[in-house]
Amino acid sequence: MNYLVNRKDIIWGYLSQFLNISSSLLLLPFILKCLNEEEIGLWYVFVAMAGIIQLLEFGLLPTISRFISYVYSGALNLEYGKIPKCNIGDFNKELLNDVVVTCRCIYFKIALFALVGILILGNAYIYTLSTSINKYYILCCWSVYGLSICIQLYFGYYNAILKGRGDQTLLNKIIVVAKLTLLLISIPLLIAGCGLVSLAVGAVISVIIDRILIRKYVYSQESGLIRNLEKSNKTVSLKKVIWQSARDMGVVQLGNYLSVRAGVLIVSSFVNLDAAASYGLTVQVTMVIVIIASMFFGLNIPRITSEQAHENMLVVKNLMKKSLLIANCIYIFAALILVAIGDDILAFLTKNTTLLPKELLILYLVTALFEMNYSICTSYLTTRNEVIFIKSMLYTGVAIVLFSFISTYIAEMGALGVILSQLLMQSLYNNWHWPLKVYQELKND
């Protein structure tokens, strides 16, 4: 497999991730014009709840992607917590197919759990929200939107396969098509006055198109994969290895969710939907900046994983230095633009909702900068097939939720309390420890 990243790969990567993360952002002019502030707040609640449902994937995508990279790099077997020994040359097609069959079984169960969570727990939570909008209309919108989540989850391992074998440009092209479909469907429906259902219907159709396209290329002739292969004797042992590794990443993702996304639910529950709209918008815009800034690193994860397996540490070191430099330069530049003219751009689009006040915006951007840097460093550590930061991520996430609850519900600090909780709790350990550890390891190598 070819893991080298060229300029064309980077361009497609930036375009796809921009559309992937910012499709809602590109919809914003129409959302802000066509929806009222309560509906905007509900949309961000939908997005936050989708994040909870997607936690059922529990770290599988990065784990499977890493294992696929090992297999295509010549791995003879896969073990928990160890970098496998690799042969230079052809890859083990039997092992590859066993991994894919195992993943298919796991993802089917995840999709079923997700469907139950969406129809029962999700609808129950939405029914408790204080809003003047018809509850049954909101529940229908959420159920349709939830269907798109289930479809995406069931076929989620396709993304990991393409990414793991180095076909990221192909994956990015499919993402571009899917997100453009979302925009082309949702925008006319919003203009026609269909409300929240516009976004839900657009999400379902775009996900269906995405899965159809990606399945076609996953089973290409040169992939070495066999369609509709049945379970083998290795499926049970591989399932154990995958679950053990995914469990570690899943706990980390849970901690990340509690650290970042849970704030939207806390603000909507203990402040109001209007505040949730401003906070959610700020989080969304910042996430777009983070994703674009760390794109170069994301594109090179399969290569870093492969180079780790072949012990080419000089290449790994150079890729990490370049990744961190590019990420920080892009983030700081974009953050300065957002602070300088973000309010003016938003005021031109609508008067219905705003970003957080400038002081809070700057504070949140600083918080997100620290989180981006330690996230890149912890992602690097996983390329060695070990996850040593589980406890720190989970404990920090729980602490952030606890202090956010205290600061919003008891101290009545609003969004400021949520942001300060993130910054202070992360700064106790994660913000400095993991970047320092990566620096020390690469320096020694």
UniProtKB/TrEMBL annotation:
Keyword Membrane among UniProt keywords: yes
One GO cellular component term noted in the UniProt record for this chain: plasma membrane
Record localization: Cell membrane
Keywords: Cell membrane, Membrane, Transmembrane, Transmembrane helix
Residues that span the membrane, as ranges: 12-31, 43-61, 110-130, 136-158, 197-214, 254-273, 279-302, 323-341, 361-381, 393-420
Main location: membrane
InterPro entries in alphabetical order: Poly_Biosynth_Transport, WZX-like
Membrane topology: Multi-pass membrane protein
Presence of keyword Membrane: yes
This protein's name: O-antigen flippase
Gene source species: Escherichia coli
